[in-house]
């Protein structure tokens, strides 16, 4: 008899891909997915810990499962991912939610089916956190959400140790996958119907640095670009300290690499960047932006920015606002600095009051929104190619898709178009989305 599972994912695209892999592992063991959490025999929360808010969401959801577990004692509740990889988090969860049956970290998700078998066979919970990654080189199945696009991990871990970031502690050191394995996986995905791939890594620009033989991210991109049948190649996340001019040339001369770049700046102040241990300067970041726009004029630039980092003065915050005005990002993910246990910045004494951080974030977002609308307005009257991804979140009568530059486009069309690239005439630009009409409707 089939059992049903429900996976709730928190965090980044790497977590989303991990959830796809775990879903694939479960389906191989005759579990079937359900969208109704109340029907599930197994509920798994795949967690993020990059900010305090992400952890709070996980604990809140666990609290809401207490009644469901009481009504259904056979229900297995599991928590996995980055949050669990942190020290001392397992006792904290068990104290608040003793009904959790299963916990494991980022390095042993391939063992998930075996853990469930042990719980079902012996009736005992399993809590297993390992430091060494046992799955980085394994060929694991994935149950993809979209048949026409796919995530592909090209590396795992991070060596940068930014003072605010917990990722190196929960994801480990950088480990690049073999180029031939990545190429083979992309070819398989294309043969299976994928026309877009998103290459994933905490810092894709340092791909290959751990190999004895010389191989770069630019080399990898060139080979993937030549794979027959692929239409779009995306990647994230880049790091300014490792971003090369060679990479710009590869994107410029490619046939399928999308003209969008997510390049986190975090701050516009050299003093703050130094305290963050980012290993580049404001000037270097602006050089990359200038070179990218000169080579690829239609490129869409997005970024991450942290406000209220310990010791950030009003003048230093203004330097960030000035950088935003200088670059004019298409979009940005902006965050209030959040203490992360175990990071260097947690111990910095000059923490910024929450009220000041909130006020700065509001000012920053005003500037960011202005530039998002400015860039979107350029699309009015243009005909653009859109990969149709599904129904609009806010209107089931509309379709939603993305341009080569990552812009969200909403338009009327038949659901049979999902998964196809279509031409859309943009009629209206809003701050976060574009609206248009299918070319053949005009």
Task: Outline the structure in words.
It is a single chain. With 442 residues, the chain is α/β, with parallel strands linked by helices. The chain is 35% helix and 22% strand. It is built from 14 helices and 19 strands. It has helices at residues 13-28, 52-64, 66-71, 82-85, 89-96, 112-122, 167-171, 179-191, 217-225, 245-253, 270-276, 282-295, 314-327, 354-377; strands at residues 3-9, 31-33, 42-47, 76-81, 102-104, 126-128, 149-153, 155-156, 175-176, 196-200, 232-236, 260-262, 300-307, 331-336, 383-391, 399-403, 408-411, 421-429, 434-438. It has a 6-stranded parallel beta sheet, sandwiched between helices. Strands 15-16-17-19-18 form a 5-stranded mixed barrel. Strands 7-10-11 form a 3-stranded parallel beta sheet, with helices on both faces. Helix 13 links the parallel strand 13 (300-307) and strand 14 (331-336). Helix 10 (245-253) runs parallel beside helix 12. The longest helix is centred in the last third of the chain and has 24 residues, at 354-377. The chain is globular. The model has no long low-confidence stretch (mean pLDDT 95).
């Amino acid at each position: 008899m089939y059992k049903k599972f429900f996976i709730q994912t928190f965090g980044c695209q790497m977590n989303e891909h991990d959830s796809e892999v775990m879903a694939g592992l479960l389906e191989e063991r005759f579990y079937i997915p359900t969208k109704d959490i109340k029907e599930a025999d197994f509920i798994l929360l795949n967690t993020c810990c990059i900010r305090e808010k992400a952890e709070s969401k996980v604990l809140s959801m666990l609290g809401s499962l207490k009644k469901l577990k009481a009504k259904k004692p056979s229900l297995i509740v599991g928590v996995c991912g980055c949050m669990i990889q942190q020290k001392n988090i397992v006792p904290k969860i068990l104290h608040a939610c003793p009904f959790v049956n299963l916990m494991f970290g980022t390095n042993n998700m391939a063992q998930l089916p075996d853990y469930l078998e042990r719980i079902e066979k012996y009736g005992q919970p399993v809590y297993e956190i390992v430091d060494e990654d046992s799955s980085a080189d394994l060929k694991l199945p994935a149950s993809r959400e979209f048949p026409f696009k796919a995530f592909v991990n090209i590396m795992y871990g991070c060596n940068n140790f930014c003072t605010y970031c917990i990722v190196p502690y929960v994801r480990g050191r950088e480990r690049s996958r073999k180029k031939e394995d990545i190429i083979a996986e992309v070819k398989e995905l294309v043969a299976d119907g994928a026309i877009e791939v998103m290459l994933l890594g905490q810092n894709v620009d340092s791909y290959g640095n751990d190999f004895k033989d010389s191989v770069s991210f630019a080399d990898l991109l060139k080979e993937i670009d030549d794979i027959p049948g692929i239409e779009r190649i995306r990647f994230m996340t880049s790091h300014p300290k490792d971003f090369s001019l060679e990479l710009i040339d590869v994107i410029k001369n490619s046939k399928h690499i999308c003209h969008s770049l997510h390049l986190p700046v975090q701050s516009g102040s050299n003093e703050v960047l130094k305290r963050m241990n980012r290993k580049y300067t404001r000037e270097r970041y602006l050089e990359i932006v200038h070179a990218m726009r000169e080579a690829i004029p239609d490129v869409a630039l997005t970024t991450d920015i942290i406000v209220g980092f310990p010791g950030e003065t009003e003048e230093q915050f203004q330097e960030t606002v000035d950088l935003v005005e200088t670059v004019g990002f298409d979009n940005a993910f902006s965050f209030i600095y959040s203490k992360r246990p175990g990071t260097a910045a947690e111990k910095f004494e000059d923490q910024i009051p929450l009220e000041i951080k909130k006020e700065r974030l509001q000012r920053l977002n005003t500037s960011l929104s202005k530039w998002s609308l400015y860039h979107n307005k350029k699309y009015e009257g243009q005909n653009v190619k859109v990969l149709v991804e599904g129904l609009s979140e806010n209107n089931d009568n509309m379709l939603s898709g993305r341009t080569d530059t990552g812009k969200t486009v909403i338009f009327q069309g038949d659901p049979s178009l999902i998964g196809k690239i279509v031409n859309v005439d943009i009629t209206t630009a809003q701050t976060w989305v574009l609206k248009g009409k299918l070319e053949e409707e005009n």
